[in-house]
Amino acid sequence: MEAAALARLSLPGVGVGGGGGGGGGGVAFPVSRGRLLAVKEKKKQQLHAPISASTSASASASASASASASASASAGNEEALRYDSKVETLLDSVKWDNKGLVVAIAQNVDTGAILMQGFANREALATTILSRKATFFSRSRSSLWTKGETSKNFINVLDIFLDCDRDSIIYLGKPDGPTCHTGAETCYYSSVHDQLEGPKPNQDWLAATTLQSLEATISRRKEEIEEAQNRKPSWTKKLLLDKELLCSKVREEAGELVQTLLEGEDRSRTASEMADLLYHSMVLLTAKDVKIEEVLEVLRRRFARSGIEEKNSRK
Amino acid sequence: MEAAALARLSLPGVGVGGGGGGGGGGVAFPVSRGRLLAVKEKKKQQLHAPISASTSASASASASASASASASASAGNEEALRYDSKVETLLDSVKWDNKGLVVAIAQNVDTGAILMQGFANREALATTILSRKATFFSRSRSSLWTKGETSKNFINVLDIFLDCDRDSIIYLGKPDGPTCHTGAETCYYSSVHDQLEGPKPNQDWLAATTLQSLEATISRRKEEIEEAQNRKPSWTKKLLLDKELLCSKVREEAGELVQTLLEGEDRSRTASEMADLLYHSMVLLTAKDVKIEEVLEVLRRRFARSGIEEKNSRK
């Protein structure tokens, strides 16, 4: 993400709707309460209307456009009108299927976890753009629904990505809490590997990326320490039990990483030493009950206002 | 990921098909060449067959089951038979839609990047389980296709996750190269934010998570250094231009992180210092042209064989 692009966040008319709050920092859309209300009003009107079965949803599109445009015009905001027109152009460029839908995937911007997958129609995407809350079209209930409208666990959308075919979208955002109705962080907790190879070793086996998997293992080592065991403790447990050892290892690994640069060592050594540093500092995070997601959120927030660079350039 | 579960990888009859290779390490399915060939044979037979339009694909399921089962039986492998039966049970548990499909999302296990999204029918999922290459059902061509069969950029699948409704799956894996036919790392490179707020500042604006975004920005700072500029360099540029400064900062930040544990500082301090350490060490990685993905791959590989713990417990 380019700092210049991120700096464009504070546009006039920005007013993020209530609820949530975990989503600040990073890329975001300007939100106009007027436009959002217009979309919500439209949503009420269309709730029981049949969905267009044609590939083009242009009829409902222009209706939605004019509703939205007139709301903005009454606010006398030319910029808002231009923005609405851009939203319409964007909605027109999406390749809706014969039911007027595209696949919509919600992803946690910090951890990369895929939280859930649903479908979006033109109205759902427009609502997500304007409200910044991940919104889908329920095929079973034939209605819009915003994730979190019942649970209050909204997904605060920072950016939306379209794929090369423009028929699949990602809502990249920050969830306020667990996304799955079961209380799990993500809806994807059934591992095919587990089902084929044996029973689940743990309930928290999610579709986790490498960093989250490593964190989960370190956390389990910490839990196991409390269940006193006779067998030789693992290296992770040793580190968790001995603060001095852990701290000296973090310092040592930082020194070894630095050496690879100063002494022009092979780049594979750099990757290996960075892996060591990352692992040992993640053990320290676990010792302090800090999640890597919190660290990434700190980075994202600083980064959004180019805080790291700004703070340090003043030194 | 639990080390015990990861250790189950080396099962009898494992023989990963040719091609690719970047996928090693981490969770994986046992692959039987016999079973895979049976599935491929079945695939040829069914290529021009109509897709079942009923919600249950049980007819083609049992056909596929018996083809697969007989191939295994000829190998006289009871374990393989049990495995096949488990695969069938699993395929039966998926909630295929009225076209016999589910949404299938391919995700990079290390970076968390969503690479592409397609659809899978029963045969595509079975093929992916057995071949460990992400395989989809093309709705336009009405045929199976394995990502990479033309480009050789396979997605080597390490595990598959089903969502709570069992109608959406993640192929969690490691790509051999760029996934998108445009040559982009992922198919999701069109940012709605960019389209609404202004032109793309860079071509490499992908649906990137926080860590990848930070890395991209640091890389751009490095490129900008080469394009000599008169304005005051950013902090990142200063670090990239001054090895000694960069190295002393990495050591300093490691020391500050360690202090938060030793002196029982607030956990928000720990998150903040870890963010500093991560940022500065990522600048070092960029200076050495090492991608964070390479570091994560090192961690995953060690982790899969519990290498970190094993190596260190011997010390």
TrEMBL record, chains A, B:
Keyword set includes Metal-binding: no
Domain of life assignment: Eukaryota
Catalytic activity, as annotated: 1-(5-phospho-beta-D-ribosyl)-5'-AMP + H2O = 1-(5-phospho-beta-D-ribosyl)-5-[(5-phospho-beta-D-ribosylamino)methylideneamino]imidazole-4-carboxamide; 1-(5-phospho-beta-D-ribosyl)-ATP + H2O = 1-(5-phospho-beta-D-ribosyl)-5'-AMP + diphosphate + H(+)
Annotated keywords: Amino-acid biosynthesis, ATP-binding, Histidine biosynthesis, Hydrolase, Multifunctional enzyme, Nucleotide-binding
GO biological process: one example: L-histidine biosynthetic process
Record-linked Pfam families: PRA-CH (PF01502), PRA-PH (PF01503)
InterPro entries: His_synth_HisIE, HisE, PRib-ATP_PPHydrolase-like, PRib_AMP_CycHydrolase_dom, PRib_AMP_CycHydrolase_sf
Pathway of action: Amino-acid biosynthesis; L-histidine biosynthesis; L-histidine from 5-phospho-alpha-D-ribose 1-diphosphate: step 3/9; Amino-acid biosynthesis; L-histidine biosynthesis; L-histidine from 5-phospho-alpha-D-ribose 1-diphosphate: step 2/9
Residue span, Phosphoribosyl-AMP cyclohydrolase domain: 116-189
Single GO molecular function: phosphoribosyl-ATP diphosphatase activity
Protein's UniProt keywords contain Ribonucleoprotein: no
Family under the similarity heading: In the N-terminal section; belongs to the PRA-CH family. In the C-terminal section; belongs to the PRA-PH family.
Record protein name field: Histidine biosynthesis bifunctional protein hisIE, chloroplastic isoform X1
Gene of this entry: LOC109725854
